[in-house]
Amino acid sequence: METKDIEKIVRPNILAMAPYSTARDECEGSPEIFLDANESPYDNGFNRYPDPHQKRMKKAVAAVKGIREDHIFLGNGSDEAIDLAYRVFCRPGIDNAVSIAPTYGMYGVAAATNDVEFREVPLGKDFSLEPDALLAAADANSRLLFICSPNNPTGNSFPREQIERIIKEFNGIVVLDEAYADFSSQGSFLRDIDRHPNLIILQTFSKAWGMAGLRVGMAFASPYIIRLFSNVKYPYNINGLTQEIVTGKLLEAATLHVREIVSERARISEAIAGYPGIMKVYPSDANFILVRCTGPKDLYNALMEAGIIVRDRSGVRGCEGCLRISIGTASENSRLIRTVAAWSASLYPGDRISGNASCPVSPESPEGICTGGTAYADGNNGTGTNADRCYNAPVTAHADSTGAAARRATVSRTTSETGITAIIDLDGKGPSYISTGIGFFDHMLDQIVHHSGISMLIKAKGDLDVDEHHTIEDVAIVLGKAISEALGDKTGIGRYGFVLPMDESEASVLLDFGGRTDFRWDAEFSREKIGDMPTEMFPHFFKSLAETARCNLHISARGENEHHKIEGIFKAFARALKMAVAREKFPYSLPSSKGLL
User: Fold this and answer.
1) CATH topology of domain 3-25+52-251
2) Amino acid 594: pLDDT
3) What are residue 148's DSSP bridge partners?
4) Residue 451 needs a FRET pair 20 to 30 A away by CA distance; which of 142, 223, 247, 345 works?
5) Rounded-to-integer distance, Cα 518 and Cα 507, Å
């Protein structure tokens, strides 16, 4: 889009208006006595109006950003530039704006304020950008298209080629909000501003520069758009003291704490990702993380009780169950981690998930480091800094609402190749979450959750850059042990379970928790892999699981579709497991004529 095309979408009244002009704008000389603006003549440092064009400040911004001064607009926060975009380009009640969703809420608020229809296009899976959908949502009256990258509240950056395509193909103004670009490795579109006359880039001094209290935002665009903004803005939109402070910070090259924030972002993400109740910590290129959890209101309240306020985004479409957590100082972040750990442990009353009697986590520890000599999730045996996470914890049996002992277990296994944690609730009273790094494996383990009725959290980190073998094997070992421990003395269980058809395939699983271990496998696969999982690992997984769960497990399958065969096996196993662990009516008894399992 050329400048002449942009002129066609400017509101006619904006093109026709005469901008407000001060006497000093009209003066070509260098006056010494100022009697033009009805100011107080008595100098107190603030008696004169500030420079309405922020010339000195723009010069400093231009030097830092590597861009010409006529490409710069400075406003009262980025919100002023957002509002001006509507006022300059959108006819109230006629034109519309297109935006991704979820995203920064002020785009919609400014649209409503200016009586402009606001069209939201949902992001794709894992908050991916959908260029085709965005462009399809536009029509002849679409004047603005908003993209925030890195996006708020999701934290992710969008691919440059997708953004560039949208800029080229959208027949209006693309507003690219780069408020969090300083924290991203992707970089800015600033160097491309001359190539895109229809692009407005928003940046801010509130985040990386640490000047949120001064309320200064930047907009970068073609000189034509900058002139339009300057014509419409209030004459003295940035006060003199703010201009002086910001200019001084820029000239003295103020210290930015971007590296520390990025490092702390990684530490928090890794530390809380394995806790029960934390379903997902989304990747972030910003100075915050988005966290999906099983009880966002409960976690929010727990943090508030600890004196920590975060942003509850669970009511935002696409962010259901999510809290947005800004990155603080190292000590603040450690306090956050400890609070999340305590909340997580409360999901399983009596199960000591974040420490045990011989391995307490000191609440006074600035890093939440467990001081015992047992196995840690990061494999550092009592010296690790993976805050608050010792999983070598005994499971304390406690009664459920029926009076029967709860059947839960937490098991962790750390080797030089893997770190696996499994939390099992055989009665399905906890959250479920699977993350092994192997997509098809996760999908199959999900079948166990959905078809067995148990709750299962599995968090695995392994040497997938080498091979899938260790991760799959160790998950089986940990899962089998967790099932065995959760069964306890096996009082009242059904003990046996079997069979399932799957489309054209059939799968048979014979399961017996009698205490003996025997494994038989009768299924062949012609493909080397299904998804990203080697088929040779299917029998190995179930064999390892049977050995640690201490059960007889006989599996056979027939069929034409390889995917259906293995999916049938996992579903049949889940159904067999559901039958075998199911409790009979009171009084509970041991399903064995020997009186022992």
Assistant:
1) Aspartate Aminotransferase; domain 2 (3.40.640)
2) 57
3) 177
4) 345
5) 18
Q: Where are the domains of the chain?
A: 3-25+52-251, 257-369, 496-581
Contact between residue 500 and residue 572 where contact means Cβ atoms under 8 Å apart: yes
Sign of CA dihedral 96, 101, 105, 106: negative
pLDDT per residue as tens digits for the range 383-406? 333 333 333 333 333 444 445 566
Provide the angle, in degrees to the nearest 10, between the axes of the packed helices 439-452 and 562-581.
40
CA angle 271–274–276, rounded 5-degree value = 125
Beta carbons of 276 and 344 less than 8 angstroms apart: yes
For the entire predicted model, the pTM comes to 0.62
Instruction: Using 70 as the pLDDT threshold, list the residues of the chain that sit under it.
Output: 1-4, 23, 253-255, 348-406, 429-431, 491-495, 498-504, 584-597
Task: Show the tokens assigned to 464.
Answer: 């997938």
Cα distance between residue 475 and residue 544, in whole Å:
9
* Torsion angle, alpha carbons of 387, 388, 391, 393, to 10: 160
CATH topology of domain 257-369: Aspartate Aminotransferase, domain 1 (3.90.1150)
Query: According to the model, what pLDDT value does residue 498 have?
Result: 65
- Sequence-distant (≥ 6) Cβ neighbours of residue 401 within 8 angstroms: none
Judged by DSSP in three states, 422 sits in: strand
DSSP annotation string for 457-474: EEEEEE-TTT-SHHHHHH
CB 177 within 8 A of CB 104: yes
CA distance 261 to 467: 33
Would you state the structure tokens that stand for residue 280, as one six-digit string? 């997902």
3-state secondary structure of 146: strand
| Three-state secondary structure string covering 21-52 | CCHHHHCCCCCCCCCCCCCCCCCCCCCCCCCC
Note whether 386 and 376 are within 8 A (CB).
yes
Helix (H, G, I), strand (E, B) or coil at 145: strand
Mean pLDDT of all residues belonging to the chain: 83
- Listing from the earlier edge strand, what are the strands of the sheet with 278-281? 278-281, 288-293, 322-326, 311-312
Q: How far apart are CA 285 and CA 65, in angstroms?
A: 20
Q: How far apart are CA 592 and CA 597, in angstroms?
A: 7
Q: With contact defined as beta carbons under 8 Å apart, do 176 and 200 qualify?
A: yes
Please state which of the four CATH numbers 3.30.230.40, 3.80.10.10, 3.40.50.740, 3.30.70.20 is assigned to the domain occupying 496-581: 3.30.230.40
Compute the distance between CA of residue 348 and CA of residue 407 in angstroms, rounded to an integer: 11
Q: How far apart are CA 198 and CA 176, in angstroms?
A: 11
Could you identify the residue written with the tokens 């259906």? 564
Q: Are 108 and 119 in contact (CB under 8 A)?
A: no
Pair 370, 361: CB distance under 8 Å: yes
Strand locations in 60-137 (E): 72-75, 96-101, 117-122
pLDDT of 459:
82
Q: Is 159 left (phi over 0), alpha (psi -120 to 50) or beta?
A: beta
Q: Report whether 99 contacts 118 (CB < 8 A).
A: yes
By the 8 A CB rule, do 454 and 426 touch? Answer: yes
